[in-house]
Fold this sequence. Notes:
Helix content: 10-25%
CATH architecture of the largest domain: Distorted Sandwich
CATH class of the largest domain: Mainly Beta
Bound molecules: zinc ion
Amino acid sequence: MEIQVSGEGLQTVKGFLRRQEIPFFAERGRFFTLLGVDLEEKAGALELLIRGRARNGERGEKAVALGVKEKTFPQEKLSVPASFDRIDEATQRRIEREQQQLNRIWATSSLQRWWESPFLAPVSGGVTAPFGLRRVVNGLPRSPHGGVDLKASLGTEILAANHGQVVLREEFFFGGKSIVIDHGSGLYTMYFHLDEFHVGKDTQVRRGELIGRVGMTGRVTGPHLHWGVRLNGARVDPFELLEATGREQKAESSRQ
Ligand SMILES: [Zn+2]
């Protein structure tokens, strides 16, 4: 969701959620930020502390109470032959290494913001596995689905959801050929199971630029795009990001 702060002579605004700094961006005489909570966040109250400084040096602080509501995600029960599900020790170590590599990315935040509203969906297909889906395989619950699976045939063009920098381009055990784009200020999008890469690591990309093609690399049963979003470390629903940044666009165009 978007949070806005405005006030006479405001020069800088910072937010803090559980001591984690939440960047605010200056735009047309106001400050705004995007806030999202992780899909496994417990229902309850969260406090966002907002600190502002005016041009005359005056400082102000305000605590805003945010309510996190319970949300039930869909569940899917699957049975697979035990042999299909077996992972040897070397693979297990590889999976952990790859997870750590991603976690190190989420733990960092570029100071600059490259993204601009709106974000766009990287492919136009519908959703085959929704955000937060809980899979129970052979009676054992797996970690919830941290992104959305978008329907697309092999070779479909994948477009960058927004401007940013490619900070990861690797072949992972689960994700297959994977790309992560850093959009700046703690906002990342990820693209898994690619057939081909069309960008290199560390390249700057523009919104809508071709970054790869849909494939079925990694642990998948068919071609699709897994699209995920991290916002200040939290796994958020990519469609909520589209909605949160798309509304502004609409408001803007109606003003013209
Ligand atoms: Zn997925």
